[in-house]
């Protein structure tokens, strides 16, 4: 499902965005909408009309278009001519494709390295620029269906959060891929070393000094996130930053915080009196 993102765009007075609004395979048809941001107010201005199997799109309620291509042409006409839509609204500029909006042809999937909350996780390569070396990435893949709407929404939330944060102790986020109507992907930095909890179990001879550096890495990540008003996994029933939610780069001996699926933005999370909290992290 692709949702309008115009609400989070800073800056200029007016933006417009064509979005595909969703749908799951073989269940509901694809719909389109145009979102316009005007003086910090966002509105969906395309009217959708349906008569039996025929779909009509109109910007102004007068001229009706039968498909999305005609709609795009209509929008381009309004942009180039400066003609108003309706009484007062003019489309000044489109929202350009964002760097994090990736296409599938930039990715090469290799082998499955695990299963997560959203589906399978694969190692792979990302080619951001043909003139530069490819990047090792981890790719979360989820199949879209009527039965996993909640997980899809959670995946979108994780992507929206992660693209805001850049820190040496947080797993880097590269982008999202929408593969038609059947699957979606989150593309992240591949950490060679795996989950910290597994690494600690395999290397029980590690000194307390080394373990303290790992704890410091996580603390730096949390300090950064809290300064950004992000609470890491507060809805998780233990509300802890567990080793299983951290990855270790063995070569650099660097721990990075991962798994933003249940994180939220805010200043504080209030623990209810009847809820259990962890003593041991």
From TrEMBL:
Residue ranges of every copy of the Protein kinase domain listed in the record: 107-281
Binding site for ATP: 140
Molecular function via GO: ATP binding; protein kinase activity
Cited InterPro entries: Kinase-like_dom_sf, Non-receptor_tyrosine_kinases, Prot_kinase_dom, Protein_kinase_ATP_BS, Ser-Thr/Tyr_kinase_cat_dom
Lineage: superkingdom: Eukaryota
Keyword flag Nucleotide-binding: yes
SUPFAM superfamilies: Protein kinase-like (PK-like)
Entry coiled-coil feature ranges: none
Name of the protein this chain belongs to: Protein kinase domain-containing protein
